[in-house]
Amino acid sequence: WKVLDKVIHGFSNTPKGFPFCLKVDHGKTYRSLREEQARFSVFQSNLRTIEQHNAKYEAGEETYYLKAGCLEGQNALKHGQRISLSEQNLMDCSGGYGNNGCKGGVMDYAFFYVKDHGINSEAAYPYEEEVKNCRFDSSRSIVRVDGVYDFNMKVFVAVALFLVAVQVQAGSDQELWTQFKVDHGKTYRSLREEQARFSVFQSNLRTIEQHNAKYEAGEETYYLKVTQFADMTPEEFKEFLSLGEKTKPDLNHPVYEPDMTVAAPNSVDWRQKGAVLEVKNQGQCGSCWSFSATGCLEGQNAIKHGQKISLSEQNLMDCSGGYGNNGCDGGLMTNAFFYVHDHGINSEAAYPYEGKVKNCRFDSSKSIVQVDGVYKVNEDEEALKQVIALEGPVSVGVDASGFSLYGGGVFNPRSCSSSSINHGVLAVGYGTEGNTDYWIVKNSWGPGWGESGYIKMIRNHNNRCGIVTLASIVTLKSDEFRDQLIQKLIEYVKKTLEIFRVGKELGENGTEGRNGFAENFDNFEHLENT
Fold it and tell me: Does Chloroplast show up as a keyword for this record (predicted)?
């Protein structure tokens, strides 16, 4: 182990397996993260030597073998103690290091906790399968970690002795990591956290490579790429999405009944018709519902009134709480629509996005659209197709658990729920690629995600990912209605001016005139209320 970071000539390939953690028992330090990564590459080469040697041992050609492991394994190797250690201790006590109990975590965080505190045995701190108050007893600690070294592996939620078979290209991984941080403005609180995130990033790179190999072989219909979520575990990404689950849908809305006798075209793309505005970015706020809602409203405003005006998600976040929405903690598009029905909505320019909830500052004098009706769409893909074709973009909810690394192609994952909806998006069209039908869906994670901010989702596949489960649309008050309001306003102004004209004339005729003016002023107040 003392020389594992020194070059042993003759073995330059990446090993198939290597230990996840390295205890720096020999005082190893490096001048920079770059040098450390270079040493890691050398270390991998030497692990290849270990692997080849152990293959000879298994074949009876050698009399000894090599092995490595984490915590329990290291305790057995270093101290001869075969003691089961407490996962419950880690679940209850390592939250301050970034772990989330039963909702997932990162092993590096657990190791750093043990480095700082220690860990009890399984017997002293038994497993209970739920997070409880921390009861760690430092006087009964079994092991203390001297150092932690991060290597690439798939994520495990366990403390055990293991080796992991993966393919690693340390140099290119480091380059991709550096570019990833620049592209997405990623910063971390400490080198320790960055090392942990780099480990997750490498795991996601392996996922991308393996999936894309299947895509190239024609076994998958979509491909993956590095996105802003590439430093998150699948569990963390689901937690990010599940922010919207606090709001439960009210399904007692009227159903929009499209004219099914009209033949819908084979493909529709409202982007090409000017009814879809630029892709926006919700950031780390769970406000997808507001972006889905504004997208639908913007589409209707463009189609019905010819106005391409970006509407304010912040307006909805700040002001629709009384309608059941929860700002960055989730909401529903229909709740947002009912708020706009009752109040209106400002433009993005007048009420810009801030990514957090603030006091409501809606200005009714600057409202852009008036909603006439709020409707749900039947849970039927043909009905959704007809509504999109005849009316425009539709707000939809989906199970986006597999969206994190989506790069392009028709998204058709192995598993995707039609009922566990966790993300609000906008269906802006549909089409067919080869023999595969798809929906064109606008997301709110910026133009760098997916296909310029969009995803093509499998269509006519038993409501895959729940795209019709929470579909909804609005109708706007027509131009005719608006013209009627303007005409009434003109009549109102004329009558008001007439009242003041008569009042002025009467006011010139003494007391009788003043009394007459008072009577007409009462009429003016009545008109004003009207």
Answer: no
Q: What is the pLDDT of residue 66?
A: 56
Structure tokens at 63: 């009399």
d(CA 323, CA 415): 33
- Amino acid symbol at 291: F
Dihedral sign, Cα of residue 266, residue 271, residue 273, residue 276: positive
d(CA 426, CA 445): 12
| pLDDT at 17 (0 to 100) | 31
Provide the pLDDT for residue 69.
39
Catalytic entry in 288, 319, 328, 465 = 288
pTM for the structure as a whole? 0.62
CATH topology of domain 240-476: Cathepsin B; Chain A (3.90.70)
Q: Give the Cα separation of 465 and 453 in Å (integer).
A: 18
Q: Is 93 a catalytic residue?
A: no
Closest CA to 285 of 249, 325, 251, 248: 325
pLDDT at 315: 99
Q: Which residue has 């009549």 as its token pair?
A: 491
Tokens representing 266 are: 């084979």
Q: Which two tokens stand for residue 369?
A: 């659209």
Q: Name beta bridge partners: 423.
A: 398
Q: Are 45 and 33 in contact (CB under 8 A)?
A: no
Pick the catalytic residue from 75, 152, 422, 443: 443
152 labelled catalytic: no
Largest CA distance in the chain: 126
Give me the amino acid identity at 191: L
Per the listing, tokens 């303007």 go with 486
146: three-class secondary structure by DSSP: coil
Show the tokens assigned to 36: 């450390």
Q: Which residues contact 223 (CB under 8 A, 6 or more apart)?
A: 211, 212, 215, 407, 408, 409
The C-alpha atoms of residue 336 and residue 339 are separated, in whole angstroms, by 5
**Nearest partner of 238 among 196, 204, 281, 286, judged by Cα:** 286
E strands present in 297-453: 371-377, 394-398, 406-411, 423-433, 436-442
Q: Is 360 a catalytic residue?
A: no
- The residue ranges of the chain whose pLDDT is under 70 are 1-28, 54, 57-58, 62-82, 144, 146-171, 242-252, 479-486, 503-504, 506-530
Look at the chain and count its residues. 530
CA distances from 283 to 18, 212, 267, 328, 427 (A): 36, 27, 31, 10, 20
| Residue 357 backbone phi and psi in degrees, to 5 | -80, 135
pLDDT computed for residue 140 by the predictor = 85
Query: For position 229, what pLDDT does the model report?
Result: 98
Q: What pLDDT, on the 0 to 100 scale, is given for residue 244?
A: 53
